[in-house]
């Protein structure tokens, strides 16, 4: 119950800040919350690092434009999320289509506050329960419900936002919330989160926290086909499954879940996130969130090795992005490099544990 009292106190502060600022998904309320956090250096939305005194978290962001035009990736790290000292929000958004960079930035703008508002409502409702006990699973269920509602709300708002044409454009949305020892991961699309944890012998091993939502995953393909969408590869792209309209060779989306892309929303594409949890322990060292520009050429094991071998945490994300750029040139010659972005979140307020064995970078 003490944990709940602390959380409710922080909730009261955040409610006060957004009071009268509009609905949960409104741009005005988002700007008010972000401005307040930015004023206190609690939000990072470009390449750089973020660490708040007293926090266990340390985050680094890096992003590099590919050879396809404007960089359609964008990121956010928000410390003391919702005025909670033990909470952090992170998100990475990989846009696609002619308006993809605008869609990604819009979803980055909307998602944190929509999530926060829905979480606040869940906490208020839970507080009416006299038998309330915010044990680990209960806290996760509150967040899961908030994530599901927030993603639905953001996708609805995006559809009616006249300044951006999202009919043939969209974005992935990989977001996490850390609340003390609870890690909640919500994934829409094919960006990926990987945790580096220590094994019994002290070596670092990767744990993939998300599923890449590609159209050829059986349950995804089944849903799309049942909705009269089509899934197949082009002759010059063997192994690359895409989603197509019933009677047109368009748009050829290489993922089965996304925000936007309303041309496909009646044909099996959804924006429903997969929401999972993990209890953070002293064994867990850092999390890598990255767009598919990283994972197309870097394995989970390689990513953990690259980040752990960085000379300091400040350079971890930049090192991973640079390694991915080199890997594109080596492994995919003649193919335009994708946008490449990564967030590295270190989970403890110290360098890697003493018993963790150094790892040699493979690239």
UniProtKB/TrEMBL annotation:
What keywords are annotated for this sequence in UniProt?
Hydrolase, Magnesium, Manganese, Metal-binding, Protein phosphatase
The cofactors it requires, by name, are: Mn(2+); Mg(2+)
Name of the featured protein: protein-serine/threonine phosphatase
- The reply to whether Metal-binding figures as a keyword in the UniProt entry is yes
What is the similarity comment for this entry? Belongs to the PP2C family.
InterPro entries under this entry? PP2C, PPM-type-like_dom_sf, PPM-type_phosphatase-like_dom
Q: What is the lineage of its organism?
A: Eukaryota, Viridiplantae, Streptophyta, Embryophyta, Tracheophyta
Q: Which SMART domains match?
A: PP2Cc
Q: Which Pfam families match?
A: PP2C (PF00481)
Q: Which organism is it from?
A: Heracleum sosnowskyi
Question: Where does the PPM-type phosphatase domain start and stop, copy by copy?
Answer: 58-347
E.C. number(s) listed in UniProt:
3.1.3.16
Return the Gene3D superfamilies for the record: PPM-type phosphatase domain
Superkingdom field: Eukaryota
Q: Name one GO molecular function term.
A: metal ion binding
């Amino acid at each position: 119950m003490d944990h709940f009292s602390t959380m409710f106190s922080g909730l009261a502060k955040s409610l006060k800040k957004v009071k009268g600022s509009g609905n949960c998904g409104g741009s005005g309320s988002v700007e008010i919350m972000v401005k307040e956090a930015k004023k206190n250096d609690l939000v990072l939305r470009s390449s750089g690092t973020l660490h708040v005194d007293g926090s266990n978290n340390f985050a680094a962001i890096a992003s590099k434009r590919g050879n396809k035009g404007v960089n359609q990736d964008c990121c956010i790290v928000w410390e003391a999320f919702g005025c909670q000292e033990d909470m952090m929000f992170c998100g990475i958004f990989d846009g696609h289509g002619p308006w993809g960079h605008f869609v990604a930035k819009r979803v980055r703008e909307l998602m944190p506050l929509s999530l926060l508002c829905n979480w606040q409502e869940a906490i208020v409702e839970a507080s009416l329960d006299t038998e309330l006990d915010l044990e680990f699973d209960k806290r996760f269920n509150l967040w899961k419900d908030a994530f599901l509602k927030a993603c639905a709300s953001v996708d609805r708002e995006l559809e009616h936002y006249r300044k951006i044409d999202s009919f043939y454009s969209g974005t992935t949305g990989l977001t996490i919330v850390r609340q003390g020892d609870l890690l909640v991961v919500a994934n829409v699309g094919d960006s990926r989160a990987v945790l580096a944890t220590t094994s019994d012998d002290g070596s670092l091993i990767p744990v993939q926290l998300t599923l890449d939502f590609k159209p050829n995953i059986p349950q995804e393909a089944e849903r799309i086909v049942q909705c009269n969408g089509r899934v197949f590869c082009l002759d010059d792209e063997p192994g690359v499954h895409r989603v197509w309209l019933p009677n047109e060779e368009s748009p050829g989306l290489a993922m089965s879940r996304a925000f936007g892309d309303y041309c496909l929303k009646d044909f099996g594409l959804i924006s429903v996130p997969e929401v999972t949890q993990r209890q953070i322990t002293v064994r867990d060292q850092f999390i890598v969130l990255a767009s598919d520009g990283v994972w197309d050429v870097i394995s989970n094991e390689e990513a953990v090795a690259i980040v752990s071998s960085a000379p300091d945490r400040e350079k971890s994300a930049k090192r991973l992005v640079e390694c991915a750029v080199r890997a594109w040139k080596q492994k995919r010659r003649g193919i335009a490099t994708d946008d490449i972005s990564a967030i590295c979140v270190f989970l403890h307020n110290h360098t890697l544990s003493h018993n963790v064995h150094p790892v040699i970078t493979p690239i």
